[in-house]
Amino acid sequence: NLKDLLIEPDTAFIKKLKAGETDKKMGIELSIPTFRLAGLNLYKAITDNKINISKILFKDATCKLLMGKKPKKIVKHNDDKEFNIDSIYMKGLDGISIGKIEFLRNKFEIYDLVNDQLIVNNKDLKFELKDFFLEELKGNNDYFRLHLENLKLELLKEEFMVPGGNYNLNFERIYFSMADSILEIDGLLLKTTYNDKYELAKKLKFTSEIYDIAVEKIKISAFDLEGMIKNGIYIIDSVAVKGLHLDILMDKRLPFNTDKRPKLPNQSLKQMRSPLYISKISIEDSHLKYQEKYEGYEEPMTAILADLNAQIHFATSVKDSISTGKSMTVNLQSNFMEKPPLHVNFIFPLDSRADTFYFEGHLASAKMNEFNKASEPAIGVKFIKGDLKEIKFSGSANPEISKGSMTMLYSGLEAEVDKKNTEKDKNIFLCWVANTVVHASNPGKNNKL
Question: Which residues have CB under 8 Å from 203's CB, separation 6+?
Answer without folding.
Answer: 166
